[in-house]
Amino acid sequence: MSLIVQKYGGTSVGNAERIGNVADKVIAARKQGHDVVVVVSAMSGETDRLLKLARELDPRPSERELDVLLATGEQVTIALLSIALEKRGCAARSYTGAQVCIRTDSAHTKARIMDIDAERIFASLSAGRVVVVAGFQGVDEQGNITTLGRGGSDTTAVALAAALKADECQIYTDVDGVYTTDPRIEPKARRLDRITFEEMLEMASLGAKVLQIRSVEFAGKYNVPLRVLSSFEQGPGTLITSEEPNMEQALISGVTANRDEAKLTVAGVPDQPGVAHRILGPIAEANIEVDMIVQNVGEHGLTDFTFTVHRNDYDKALDIVKRAAKDMGAREVQGDNRIVKVSIVGVGMRSHAGIASQMFQTLAAEGINIRMISTSEIKISVVVDEKYLELAVRALHSAFKLEQTPGGK
Ligand code: ADP
Ligand code: ASP
Ligand code: MG
Known about the structure:
By secondary structure, the chain is α/β, with parallel strands linked by helices. The chain has two domains: about 5-175, Acetylglutamate kinase-like (Carbamate kinase), CATH 3.40.1160; about 255-400, VC0802-like (2-Layer Sandwich), CATH 3.30.2130.10. About 35% of the residues lie in helices and about 25% in strands. It has an eight-stranded mixed sheet with strand order 3-6-2-1-9-11-12-10, with helices on both faces. It has a six-stranded antiparallel sheet with strand order 14-15-13-16-18-17. The longest helix is centred in the N-terminal third of the chain and has 25 residues, at about 65-85. It is globular, with a radius of gyration of 23 Å. It binds adenosine-5'-diphosphate, aspartic acid and magnesium ion (MG). Adenosine-5'-diphosphate binds near residues 151, 179 and 210.
C-alpha cells in the first residue's frame, strides 16, 4: 500500500459541490489502495476577504492577529471536506496545523516550517481514516498560530509528504499542469510533461504562482515526487523531477511574468565608495527585500543608482530612499510602481549563447523598451512597463517556439 498526499487549492474547494467532487476523488484514490492525506486551501476568495476585513479596521494590522484570522479559512474547508467524506461512508478526520504539530518559526505571515510530528497522522491513518490537514498554517514554539505566506498550502503538502515519506505529492489545481507560460496570458501555452526542480524553482520565483516557491525548495531538498494536476479533468499533469533533461530538451522551458515589482532610482548621487551601502543599508534595516540592482557608470563625479523591491514595499522604500538621498546630497529620487519583470527560464540556456540577444531583439521588434536586465545561468529577466506584460510574454513565447514540443513531435 502506498501513501499519497493530495493538495486541493482554493478554486477546487470553492463551493459545496466542488468539495463533494474532491471527496469523490479522494475516495477513488482510497479504492485504488492508497492511504491518503489531504491538504486543503481556504475556499477561493476567502483569504482575500479576510485580509480586506482586517484592513478596514487597520491598514497595517498586527501580523500575529492576521495569522489567527487567515488560518480560519483553511479550518472551514478541512471540516467541510471531512463532513463530505464521512457522508460518503469514508472515515475521515480533520486537523488544524497546530493539531498535527506543524512547527514553524515565529515570522508571522511568512513563517517557515521547521518540523512536523508525523505520529498523530500515522496513528489516524492506521485507524483506517483519510487525514485532512489545513494548509498554509502552523504553530510556533510559543503556541502562536502562524501562516506560511500566500500560496502556502502547497508547502504544507510537500512538507507533509517529506515528513511522512509519501510515495507522491499531488497538487490539484485549476490548470492541468505546469505550462510553458501562464495559460491565462497566452492561450497557446503548452503543458509540460515534466520539468526539473531547478527550472520549476526559477519559474516559481519569477512569478509562476502555480506552485509556491518554498514547496519546490522542499520537494527538491527531500526529493519528493511532485505532480501538478487538474481537479476538474483527468490527465497525467506535470511531473517535477530531478532528472536531467534529455537530448530534446528545449533551450527555454518557460516564460514568466511578475507584477509584484516596483523600481526606485536615486539620480545624481556622488560617485564614491559606500553609495550602495548608504542607500540599501536602511532598506535592509526596514526588512525590505531588494531584487535587481543597477549602478550606472559615473560621469562628472555623479552616478545613478536603481533597484527594485516588492510592490507592497514601494511606499515604505520610497520614504527611506528620499531620506538617504537628502543626506547624501543626491539630485533626485524617481520611483515607478507600474513596472513588471518578464523572464525566460531554461536549463538548456547554459550551453547556448545568443539567447539573450534573441530575447532583446524580440522585445525591440515589438517596440518594448527594456528598463533593467538581470541574468543567471538558467534565466534572463527584464523589467518593462506594466502595459507591455501580455505583449512581451506572448512575443517571447512565440519567438522561442514554446507552443511546439521540442524535437518537433
Ligand atoms: P490554487 O488555488 O489551486 O493553489 P493558484 O491560483 O495558486 O491555484 O495557481 C494556479 C494558477 O497559476 C493557474 O490558474 C494559472 O493562471 C497560474 N499560472 C501561472 N503561471 C503558470 C504556469 N506556468 N503554468 C500553469 N499555471 C500557471
Ligand atoms: N489560502 C491561502 C492563500 O490564499 C493559502 C493557499 O491557498 O495556498 O494564499
Ligand atoms: Mg496556489
